[in-house]
Amino acid sequence: MIGLCAESLPELMGYRRPDGRMGVRNHVLILPTITCATQAAQRVTELVHGTVSFIHQHGCAQVGADYEQTFRTYVGMGTHPNVYGVVVMGLGCETHQARSVADEIAKSGKPVEVVSIQDHGGTLGAIAQAARIASRMVQDASALTREPFGFEELIVGTECGGSDACSGLSANPAVGVVSDMIVDRGGTAILAETTELIGAEHLLAERAVDDRVAKRVYEVIEAMENRAIAMGVDIRTGNPSPGNVRGGLTTLEEKSLGAAAKAGTRPLQELVEYAQRPTKKGLVWMDTPGHDIEQLTGMVAGGAQLVLFTSGRGTPTGSPIAPVIKIASNTRMFETMQENMDLNAGTVIDGTESVESVGKRIFEEILQVCSGKLTKSEILRQHDFGIWRIGPTF
Q1: What is the largest CA-CA distance in the chain?
Q2: What is the pTM for the complete model shown?
Q3: D-galactarate/Altronate dehydratase C-terminal domain location, by residue (predicted)?
């Protein structure tokens, strides 16, 4: 077992980027800015080892705040410290122009180039050009070596997906222990899932560092509820989900109390928008929906180098660029889905381990994953990506 005393903690090992941030992975990202380019981007990843990409339905006919949020997400993925370099692939006539995204990514100092399907004579020409560029980037990336860095440079996202009656008793509070450990060492822990904090917002507001942050807590909750009201629906028709109910949860408030446990006990420093990089160290709340892949994408685009993902029902969800550590809330599901789950917190329910002990195991796993150990979702190439849309498509 790895010791957890501050004096004996091994250093994290990562890759220093031109903008000063540290990455725990060294990917070359093939970033499609339009759904029309996603298939071509996937072909490049099949040709060039060391590249990653993702499928999505975004990038065109978006306006206003919805356009800006999608643009911010693209840039956040491209500038992410786990990414060495980027090939931005576009069609040529879309709203989210590949060149605009690339220009913003270039400000981080990392290698970035643009390939347009229309400018390169169609799909085959674009794939060939992107593969040539990506091959060069991968070779350059492979020459980098890891170097030590401290927890003050680490951002960890927290998420629960497919919660059950055990989540708020085992996996989520264990992640809360880890959140406190990271914050106490100068790092940042992101709490998300605004829809799944409804009913527990007062607990987080009480921990706000000042009145401004406390007021913001209630504002984001009200805004999320108002979105449902504007559609003429009750948010509780979708939350808890059918799987949550089968897992033993009865109300949204019950689910929220369990979800809030991931935040540990430290003060809430700030609230940030979806896919926005935190400006402060410590516990941070990102305003995201409860949808697993959309919230995961937001936290990663906001700079989280890795994510702690608890589940009571089981899920294969992962990220194309950030390792996702899956934590089961009950032993039965862990044993059933061992190919997807990294750690078992069901030992708390079994009575064989404490919440604090599980938290220490998760912390040890973070040390290993940050320094190169692959998670189950990485091994299975579970490259999920989805952006929270906040406007109509025109």
Answers
A1: 63
A2: 0.93
A3: 152-392
